[in-house]
Amino acid sequence: MSGFTKIVESLHQSDDVPDLDREQPLLLIGNPHNRRTQGLQEARHRLGLKPAVVMPYAQLLQNWRHGRTMADAVDSTLSVPLIRIDAPGEDWEVERELLFLGARKDTLPLLDGMIAEAFTAEQVLALEQEWGRIYAPAQWFRGWKACLDRIGRETREIWPEVRFMNDPADIQLMFDKRACQQHLSSHGVHVPPALQSSQPIRCYTDLRTAMQYAGMNRVFVKLACGSGASGVVAYQINPRTGDEIAVTTLGMEQIRGKTIFFNEGRLRKYTRSEEIAALTNWLCAEGAQIERWMPKATLDQRAYDIRQLVAGGQAGHAIMRLSHTPITNLHLRNERMLPAEAGLDEQRMSLVRTTAQAAMSAFPNSWSAGIDVMLTSGSNPRAYVLDVNPFGDLLYRVEHHGLGTYEWEMELLRKEPIQHA
Amino acid sequence: MQEVKLVVSYDDYEDGIRMEKLIKDLAAKPEAGSLESLVIGDWGQAYESSPQEFMSTLIESAPSFPSLKKLFIGDMGFEECEVSWIIQTNLTPLLGAFPELTSFSIKGSSGLSLEPLQHAKLEELIIICGGLPKEVLSSITHAKLPELRKLELYLGVDNYGFDGSLEDVLPLLEKGLFPKLVYLGLKDSEIQDEIAKAAAEAPILDQLEVLDLSQGTLSDEGAEALLSSDKIKQLKHLDLSYHYMTDEMIRRWKQSGISVDVSDQQQSDEDDWRYPSLTE
Predict the structure, then answer these.
(1) A243 interfacial to chain B (CB closer than 8 Å)
(2) ipTM score for this prediction
(3) Could you read off the pLDDT of B207-234 as tens digits, one per residue?
(4) Which of A186, A210, A173, A179 is nearest to A365 (CA)?
(5) How far apart are the CA of B77 and the nearest CA of chain A, in angstroms?
């Protein structure tokens, strides 16, 4: 069911040696000073586990850029570690290195006839950060995938027996909303139907045509590699009047004749076709998942979905995210609530848990993810998986069996070390 | 209060289920006889199809709901349909079919009409929308609703169907239009200041307990008129929540001794533009 083989003893421990002495080291690839790394280290400390060995992304990526490999950055005496690849975000140096890694050697930034934003390797290194700006997401994603590939390759060269909490290839798949939704669907997990079209949807005009042809008047257009609410547009056309509305946190600005896109902390509503065209043209060029906007269940006139953490095949912490807008995963202002506080009944909670577990079992080489599940309204709800977040365990102020998310995960790992099928 | 809400969910609609069926199924149940409140939610693609599709079913089923006191047509959220996109129709035949009704709520005003508006027992009429057409306002000012105690109208903005002006609202501030009226809500308006100034000394205040001017673009201008009115002081409650008043004006309200809700202060946007609450 979970895709894991339960084992009593690890391959790298023998029965007669106490666990603590031969505890499998945890190698954490992340940004050392952020709340994720700190949260995990604190959890390990509280459970009496040795701290994870942290390998900073910035250092790893710079090593690569200077022709070195991972072997130059790790302690070679480290016994075969369990590796946790964490989120690379919220660090400008790392962002820039990933853009560098994603820079194309060829000069043509053409992708299926669409022109995505592109920086050359030299340009990337000279980039100064503008707050909120979304830089060349397709290029960033190429860099991120290359980074994951290389982590997988080089760690296996150092430690052929290495285990990952989440497999690098799975992380890529979870990150790509287009591929991930197809993957889930092919494993029998319910996801909102994708907008079908005989031709690739390359621009606003294609989008409108496809929506009309499919009779799908409300869609979400999501940046394929975006996190959270970044690059998500709730778009609808009134088939009777032709009115259109796009609700999003994306902002646009003209700088030297070029439109740049950035994340705003608040929701914006676009109703002019030119603006909606600019937004959707950009999303289509950078790579977009386009799916039916299914009405979510509501609580006191607020739509909600649920972030359900699954680790080791078990459903743990769950948080409801409520919003007066179509976008529930907007961090700044939306309310969070525990399902119990909201009075969500066991039938609904159980539906959420089993749906999230089913989604997780489509990734047998991965151990933990935050699954976003929505329920439909009405007395007989159905559940749909909206997103699978490989770094979805950063959840505050929520306990499961009296433990925070990282504590719970570390406790599970201690009891049952990872052994992928 | 036994209440049932009927919703055709997205999946159900795709599966061919329609509101008529849900109404018929409910009417056939034994508890229909004791049902006091019926809420009709999303009927599926409400931006294209109106309640006309299930109205005759609801009217024919009326005898199965002898205890029904409250009826709500169109209780749906933005996840189901933008409020200004909800298509309504002439709902007056429903009032004829349910002579025992005391409360009638409507959400959405596109295509809405209530002509002629009359009911011997209705105590509460609520219309929630992005913009109320002046034709509907006119039907209300010419209505025969002798028992009406609460009237709550979202006036909204011209973009979403409010094609009237203060002139169309003024008749509602006359005394005696509805002799038993104690709650008047003229809310969610882009001309909230004008309405506040007109309401401040309006004859109808003599009979009201609650004046609700919430959810609109009320600023210090309209608030000043209200605050200096002796008639306003006689109210049991004044609802001004969601507003564009300054901190200083809020402080004055709090010191006024009047029971007033001044919560949910709004800031004008960059272009100094003010939006009522329900404009999506």
Answers:
(1) yes
(2) 0.80
(3) 999 999 999 999 999 999 999 999 999 9
(4) A173
(5) 6
